[in-house]
């Protein structure tokens, strides 16, 4: 299942995983997008069509602090080493996620295993909190399947999604702009 709020985009096995909205979707190995889009995802797709991918992913598009929360449930078959490698590569995005001109996209990236005793973790194992300076930076980082034009999405994050997908059972993404 994938819960994807705000501007996330669904994976094609995480290659696209992260969609705008707050609906639950299953991850399908060969599906690029869910069959239905929730309200936020529809609004996002409409916005991209109206303003274009370059504006949507521009660093100055809707400036302000944006938080991108990502939570993974690993497949039971994922080894400890594979789980550690997924997290290592995710954390590496702090320094490797850059625009074509070399400008960093991510302001900060924090991560850790689930350790709440509230019994409300939905089976999720590990969480990541990524911070951006604008919605444009977040949009560039998230990329496909909403954004497809070369130079308008982060190829490093795109490659990470493809790498991580086989090790993940569920992903939850929730984005918000700090008020």
Relative helix content:
25-40%
Label the CATH architecture: 2-Layer Sandwich
Classification by helices and strands = alpha+beta
Order of helices and strands: EEHHEHEEHHE
Largest sheet: 6 strands, mixed
Number of helical stretches of at least 4 residues:
5
Uncertain stretches:
1-33
Radius of gyration: 15 Å
Overall geometric form: globular
Strand element count: 6
CATH class membership: Alpha Beta
What is the total number of structural domains?
1
How are the strands ordered across the major sheet?
2-1-6-3-5-4
Amount of beta strand: 15-25%
Question: Ends: how far apart?
Answer: 29 Å
The CATH topology is given as Alpha-Beta Plaits
Q: Output mean pLDDT.
A: 84
Structural descriptors:
179 residues, alpha+beta, disordered N terminus
Provide an overview of this structure.
With 179 residues, this protein is an alpha+beta fold. It has a single domain (52-177), classed as Alpha-Beta Plaits. It is 29% helix and 24% strand. It contains 5 helices and 6 strands, in the order ββααβαββααβ. Strands 2-1-6-3-5-4 form a 6-stranded mixed sheet. α3 packs antiparallel against α5. The two termini are 29 Å apart.
């Amino acid at each position: 299942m994938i819960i994807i709020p705000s501007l996330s985009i669904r994976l094609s096995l995480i290659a696209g995983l992260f969609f705008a909205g707050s609906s639950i979707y299953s991850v399908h190995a060969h599906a690029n997008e869910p069959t239905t889009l929730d309200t936020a995802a529809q609004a996002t797709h409409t916005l991209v069509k109206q303003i274009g991918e370059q504006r949507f992913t521009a660093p100055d598009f809707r400036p302000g602090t944006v938080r991108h929360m990502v939570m993974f449930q690993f497949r039971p078959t994922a080894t400890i080493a594979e789980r550690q490698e997924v997290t290592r590569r995710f954390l590496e995005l702090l320094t490797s996620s850059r625009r074509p001109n070399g400008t960093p996209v991510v302001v900060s990236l924090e991560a850790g295993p689930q350790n709440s005793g509230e019994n409300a973790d939905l089976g999720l194992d590990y969480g990541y909190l990524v911070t951006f300076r604008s919605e444009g930076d977040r949009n560039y980082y998230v990329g496909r399947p909403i954004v497809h034009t070369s130079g308008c999405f982060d190829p490093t994050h795109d490659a990470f999604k493809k790498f991580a997908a086989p090790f993940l059972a569920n992903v939850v993404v929730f984005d918000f702009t700090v008020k």
